[in-house]
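Page 42, continued from yesterday. The earlier attempt failed because a stray header line got pasted into the input along with the sequence. Redoing it now with the clean sequence only.
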Amino acid sequence: MARSVELDYPNRDKPASKAMRVVVVIALLVSSALIAIVSVKGWDLMQDAKTLNVVFIAVNLIFVVQVLRWSRGVLPMAAGIAAFIAIFSGVSISSWYERDAIGYKDASLSADLGLLTIVILVLQLVVIVVTITAFSQNWQEEVERSVPGPRPDDRRSQDTVPA
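This time it went through. Structure tokens are written below.
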């Protein structure tokens, strides 16, 4: 009797892997939401970062979809993008607070955006740690299991009988 082979991913069934996947998704979604909030509220105040913020949001959302599909390969890329976002956040914090003075447009809003930018910076550090931890869980490991029954190759050869 012929046997077919089925792939199983045992590391994906572990509670720690499932929990880490949820944590990665939540961290990326919160990161995207905070970047979107800062972008929308500070749209008139920002100079050159508008397009870059939209790109960061889109890339994070693509990473969320891939993590939900158990794609382990996007985790180091998510950590790398989080490092870029952390650098840009760290550099821009002081500029938000420098605008918090009399004579600047929306000075009170700049202080709020500065605080949100600090939160984005801290969250990016969390994203880096969480994604690298998830990467170390080896979601991609597969185990072949034999399943009784005809192999897919056998069915095709029976259907197409030469004349």
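Notes: The mean pLDDT is 80.
Reminder to self: strip header lines before submitting.
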